[in-house]
Fold:
Amino acid sequence: MAFAPAFSEDPSRAEEARDKMRAARAFARRGDANAEMVAWLDAVEAEVETRFGDTRRALSLVHHAEQTYEEHNPESNPSPAWLDWFSPIRLAGFKGNTLMVAGRGREARETLEQVLADLPDEAIKQRSIYLADIAAAAVLERDPTSACSYLEDALNLLGRNWYATAMDRVKAVRQSLREWDSIPAVRALDDRLYDWHTTVNSLVG
Structure:
């Protein structure tokens, strides 16, 4: 519920998102939530704060989540079945995105490259998201050729497994490459981005 106002990126809805997070934490305390659940709430709140521009607060929450995860004992205090998708790898994905938004390109790239290396093969949608985020980090490092390479990898995945959210990320990074429009890597990316298969998928997706 906090994500809805957060992803609107409307500053006037920031308190609405934060109120939802306070409620979630109150319910978690009431339900005696385990360490993994608390780490997940930290990650969600970090995403909320990232969306509203407070990356310092977001990174503090991620750090707390990392510390909390170290206390998690799935044998003595298991998580609910629906939380099976969350893991230290996914937490690192949240961290990488926040580092990227904070303008810390090198740290973001290193974090997200490790996430990609550790990500399960079946997590195809998340892989395309992380590739786009690494590309954004490469732009921050003023390395447009590497950014285009990561975006091409993301497009290759999207050609086989469509995910509109990831395509939105790819297009946002492409917009950030405008000062390098004339270099061969960017031109090749545009050819790939607007080829027949990708265009059709974007229309039906």
Remarks:
- Residues 14-30 form the longest helix (17 residues).
- The radius of gyration is 18 Å.
